[in-house]
Amino acid sequence: MRKIAFGYSTRCNIRCAHCVAAGDMVDDAKMELARAKEVIREMAAAGVRGMSFTAGEPFIYFDDLLELVGLCREVKMYTRIVTNSSWAKTPEKTEQWLGMLKESGLSQLRMSYSRWHQQHVPQQNVLNAADGCRKEGIDYFISFVTDFTREDDPYEQFLRDNKLKFFPEPVIYAGRAETFGRKKIFTDYQENRCAMNPYLAPDLNMYACCDAGSHFTTTNFFLLGNLENHSIDQLLTKSENVPLYNCIRSMGISNIASFAGVKAREIVTYRKCELCKVLFDSPGMLKFLQDAAGSALPNWVR
Ligand code: SF4
Ligand code: SF4
Q1: Do 245 and 292 touch, CB atoms closer than 8 A?
Q2: So what's the architecture of 2-183 in CATH?
Q3: What is the position in ligand 2's atom list of the atom closest to the CA of 273?
Q4: What is the pTM of this model?
C-alpha cells in the first residue's frame, strides 16, 4: 500500500530543542490549499491509500486541515495527523475540534511528546487530546521521543500513570538535535530494515524517506524530485525501484553497513537513521554502495 507523509506546512508554534524538521528548510513554508487538494487527488489516482499530515504543526491551519482530511475520506485514504497538542488547552475545545475532525473522517491522531515538547506544551494538553480521542472514537497513540536517559523517567511515568497508549521513539540527531552530540547505544544486532514512506515537503519536493533522510543534504540521496517536473506516480515508482532503497527495505541498514566494512561492534552503537547518515550522506561511500546495489550487495551474507 502506498503511504505518504504530507508536509502541508513546516510552520510550528513552538521551538523544540530536538526538532528534526528544523534546519535546512524554510520554517514557515506552506503549500497553496488548492494545490494541496490537486496533489491529494493525484495521489489517490496513483494508488496512495494512507496519508499522514506532518512537518510543522498541522493544527495551525485547522480549517485547511479539515478540508484536506475531508478530501482524503472522499478519495478513500486513511488519515493520520501528527501534532504537538498545543491546541488541546481545555477538554471542551479539544472535544469540539476532534469532533469536527472525526466528522471529516480522521482515522488516527499521533501526539508527539517528550521532555523537549513539554517545555512548551503542558502535559495536561496531551491528556486532553487522548481523552478527546477516546470520547470521539478516534484511534490515537503517543510518540514518546526519548534519548533513553533517566531524565525522561518522569515523562514516561506520567504516561503510565494516566494509562496512555505510547511507544518510545529514539531522538534523531538531525535538525536542531544535531548539536546534542550523538549518544551511543548498545543494542543486540538488529537488521534495521526501514519501510521508507515518502515525504512530500511544502515546496513539492518529494523524498523517499520521511525522517532524517530528507536532511541528508550532502548527497541528497533520498530526494526523488519535484512535483512541478514529475508526476506523483513517476516519483513513487522511482522510490520503489531504486536498487539501494530496496536493499534498505529488504536487507536492512545493518547488513548494508556490514557489507561496507563497518564492524559489528560499531554498528550496534547506532540508531538506524544515524547509521543511514554514515552510509548515504557521504559521497564516496554512497557511490560504492550504489555500484554494488545491483549485484554484490543484495547477494551478500555475513
Ligand atoms: S518537534 Fe514538532 S512540535 Fe517541536 S518544533 Fe519540531 S515540528 Fe514543532
Ligand atoms: S532509517 Fe534511513 S531510510 Fe529509514 S527513516 Fe531513517 S534515515 Fe530514512
Answers
A1: no
A2: Alpha-Beta Barrel (3.20)
A3: 6
A4: 0.92
Ligand 1 center to residue 28 CA distance, Å? Answer: 12
What is the 213 CA–ligand 2 centroid distance (Å)?
A: 6
Choose which residue among 52, 209, 239, 271 to substitute to test ligand 2 binding: the one with the highest number of ligand atoms within 8 A of its C-beta.
Answer: 209
Res. 234 pLDDT band, cuts 50 70 90: very high
Q: How far is the CA of 284 from the centre of ligand 1 (A)?
A: 33
Nearest to 58 by CA among 90, 82, 28: 82
pLDDT tens across 62-89, in order? 999 999 999 999 999 999 999 999 999 9
CA dist., res. 283 & res. 218, Å (int) = 8
Residue 198 near ligand 2, beta carbon < 6 Å: no
Ligand nearest to the CA of 22: 1
**Domain boundary assignment for the chain:** 2-183, 243-299
